[in-house]
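Sanity check. The docking grid for iron/sulfur cluster depends on where the pocket ends up, so I'm generating a full predicted complex first rather than guessing from homology. Inputs follow.
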Amino acid sequence: MLSAQTTDVNVNRVTPALFQKYRRPEDYLAVPVEDLENDIRPTGFFRQKTRSLRGTMKMLVEEFDGKVPRTLEELTRLPGVARKTANVVASELGHTQGIVVDTHVRRLSQRLGLTRREDPVKIERDLMKIVPRERWGVFPHLLIWHGRRVCLARRPRCEECVLLDLCPSSRV
Ligand code: SF4
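Predicted complex below; grid placement will be based on this.
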């Protein structure tokens, strides 16, 4: 939720103090709205994000006994949680049910010829057909790190890429 429309750096600026101050879902509801807004302000869109956070925490308390649910169906009911976030959370909790498609996964899947789609849900569907089920959790991490370090968005470093011989988009 905090990472929408901002950088990891900005998110990491607020989370140490945030997680120290707010330990349980109830804690996010116990403070004035303005306090939470100020606590996440550096991440941008802080009013909308505060609404999502409070809405999610309220639902966790009222419908899920204060615990984060495990299924994609339940997770995507939480305010501000779409399929990508639901997939990340489910996967990190050891209940992988799909493949996370973020900007790196999308770009690399397309460059590697694993999909021709643009829509993340359709890309995910293509990937789920070809990636073995037991690798669904780790697969996006591999693409994300490769996308950050080698297959950069503007200038892919094809000359130092381990996938050079396999990749239909190689520029070498
Ligand atoms: S060969 Fe180039 S385009 Fe293909 S995955 Fe490697 S860096 Fe990306």
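Relevant for the grid: The chain is about 55% helix and 0% strand.
Also worth noting: The chain has a mean pLDDT of 97.
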